[in-house]
Model the fold of this input.
Amino acid sequence: MECVSYEVFARKYRPQTFDDLVGQAHVSRTLKNAVAQNRLAHAYLFVGPRGIGKTSTARILAKSLNCAKGPTITPCGKCDNCREITGGNSLDVIEIDGASNRGIDDVRELRDNVRYAPAKGRYKIYIIDEVHMLTKEAFNALLKTLEEPPPHVKFIFATTEPDKVLPTILSRCQRFDLHRIPANLIAQHLQFIAGKEKITLEPAAAHAIARGAEGGLRDAESMLDQLVAFCGEKISENDVLNVFGFTSEQTVVDLMGHILRAETPEAIDLLHQQSESGKDMMRLMSDLIAYLRDLLVFKAKPDALKEDVDAEVQKSLAAHAELIATDRLLELIDQFGAAEGRMKWAPNKKLHFEVAIIKAIQSLGQATLDEVIEKLGELRDGKIVPQKESVPVAAGVSPASPSTAAPKAFGAATKAPRVQEQATALDPEKIWQRVLARIPAKGLLRTLSESVRPIGIDGRNFLLGHSPDDRSEIEVLASVNNRRQLEALLKEASGCDCSVKFVAKDGIPSRAGADAAKPAESFKDNPLIQEAIELFNAQIKS
Ligand SMILES: [Zn+2]
Done:
């Protein structure tokens, strides 16, 4: 092989025409129209995060304007002007980096030179990157030129922070917002490069890179550069995860599942595994937050993420969306966001991560208080209060007396024998009756526990079925404290160390239905209400 100087992918595959631009069709379409119809502005502003194609778009526009065959929407790439612009040595296209040329002198020089006609091209084009970094004095000097630009001058500004650009400048620019590039498009582009370079890139690997690049094409290309250096011509998903310390998408999904189902030990175990295998904790945290954000978007509009996540993840999103309400999801995002902030400066990031997980699971349990309040609200809002006697009770709240509230099947529960034979110990129905017998008669836990049915034992999981209509009640029952109590009672009743798992199942009568059929008693006697009154030290006004 001959010795050629190595060119990084980002440079080698830098887009050369509007059609090469990845994921910015809305921008290239408008610019192409402007060039084709010769309706050009004096100044353009490209806004967007780093590495998504702002300067590439600026150079393509410059070539379109100055190509010997132009102005054209398809610059030839071969004439002197095109080649010089591509090589960055055109006398007529002056690139200024706002971050390093902050001084007023640079802008003064610019202002003086603006007057001279272009050397070869049609226009003198100033591309100012990170324009928001210019000093105030430099901005003001620039403004003078912008107010009365000579006809042969075009300005193209790029910025990651448009809020910091003076309004007087903004108002003189035609603004384009470039977007983060959807992961699927980045993955596609990586496969295109891999094809040209004769690299075998697993689809899952391309997707892992795309995800890690967070919408930035340049970052994705640099990552591919590194991977080729490390792994040669065959790149698997594992290579990507190992080289960059990323966690696989499936692990993020699993971790979130444990959190949503309040499975603290499993969640912490998984975190430890990741930490021990050298995964980047910050990265995992940001992946987890990104997943929560996806979940939020999914709840609002299930098909909005089609371009960003693959089919498997879509399925997990659908399942997880069922487990959490939007307001709690927002709380979780806040909590993990705050934890991410704390982790940034902390030497022991894993510790902060653990605390965040435990807090999150706890708060998912605590949020049930809101539901109690909500139910109280429903009662106060007149579903029961105005009609004093003999009316059906509002949905989700059952009458007080356990003897009437208890479904028939559990009528004998209080007298269940305490024998511990192996056979009955494995009969879920019998075990559950013993558990019920141990739960104090007047209490939230009892009321809620009576709405579920034992449906089996699966390994170390004691499965409790509930009506799909009772989801909100089950969320209360599945809170950390309630689960812990139930699991302790299960151990007492059967001797086995089981976790309780709640499963929605058709055919189990819902509490709402059962309650509606029963005569109402004073709603103040309802254990749910009593619990709420105790919790909030409240009084009921009627
Ligand atoms: Zn040309």
